Amino acid sequence: MNAWTRQHCxxxxxxxxxxxxxxxxxxxxxxxxxxxICELPHQKFGxxxxxxxxxxxxxxxxxxxxxxxxxxxxxxxxAEQAAPNPAKTPAAPDYRAARPAKGRARKAVAQV
Length: 112
Ligand SMILES: [Zn+2]
Known about the structure:
The chain has about 110 residues and is an all-alpha fold. The chain has five helices and no strands.
């Protein structure tokens, strides 16, 4: 992983978490993080153990989110349900009708 693959990271300061802190934040077992580290976003500095920023944790969370189809339909309704009902949608007013046809007459400005 390098800077170009860390597009998900929006950290403005370094506040990395070790395995134990990351597992505690995610409420999961440390061993699960260690077992799946190759599949998870993280940072690795040489021979040091991997570290995680909160952006990594958010991505791990999203990777493992379980959204049942019924909930997914609520989030992303099918196109026919997402289209607004034309009978209930008020038409946009035509402002050209409210404008005077000839415009305003200009008044002469008195010269001082
Ligand atoms: Zn980050």
